[in-house]
């Protein structure tokens, strides 16, 4: 019986370097095709806007003053009525932790919004800003390809 060299186990350094280079080239060329920055911007802004709507509801309940969430095609703003529960929504809501800035946000470039205006009454129920009536159906807020929905009666935002 002939004794040969035992079989080699593992990879050579050259093979390892070549495989790593190929993986790096594929990632550099292929990965940007799988990810779109606008998708991440929409996701982030929809989270921000959802939190602003939730804050508006909590503020209305906590202060006993109606709080409006006004959404335009370029951003959003939170306002309260001039004299708590009567008058126009002209008093800017202060951003928590700040004494000067209003609670508002601007959509990132390329992110589109559906214009909507609603407000929360002192019980946290969502109302139509134009008609002052309680919402009877779920109200979607479109942020690019994403949606935030405000449910009637409860004001649940998801």
TrEMBL record:
Cited PROSITE patterns: PROKAR_NTER_METHYL
Record bears the keyword Nucleotide-binding: no
Database matches in InterPro entries: N_methyl_site, Pilin-like
The keyword Transmembrane helix is annotated on this UniProt entry: yes
Segments traversing the membrane: 12-31
Keywords: Membrane, Transmembrane, Transmembrane helix
Name of protein: Prepilin-type cleavage/methylation domain-containing protein
Organism this protein belongs to: Sedimenticola selenatireducens
């Amino acid at each position: 019986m002939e004794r040969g060299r035992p079989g080699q186990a593992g990879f050579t350094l050259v093979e390892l370097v070549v495989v790593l280079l190929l993986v790096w080239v594929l990632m550099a060329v292929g990965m940007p095709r799988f990810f779109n920055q606008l998708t991440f911007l929409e996701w982030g802004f929809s989270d921000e806007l959802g939190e602003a709507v939730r804050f508006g509801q909590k503020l209305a309940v906590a202060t006993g003053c109606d709080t409006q969430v006004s959404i335009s095609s370029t951003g959003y703003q939170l306002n309260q009525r001039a004299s708590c529960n009567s008058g126009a929504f002209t008093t800017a809501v202060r951003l928590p932790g700040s004494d000067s800035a209003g609670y508002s946000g601007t959509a990132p470039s390329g992110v589109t919004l559906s214009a909507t205006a609603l407000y929360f009454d002192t019980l946290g129920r969502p109302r139509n800003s134009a008609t002052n009536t309680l919402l009877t159906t779920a109200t979607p807020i479109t942020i690019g390809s994403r949606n935030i929905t405000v449910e009637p009666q409860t004001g649940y935002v998801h």
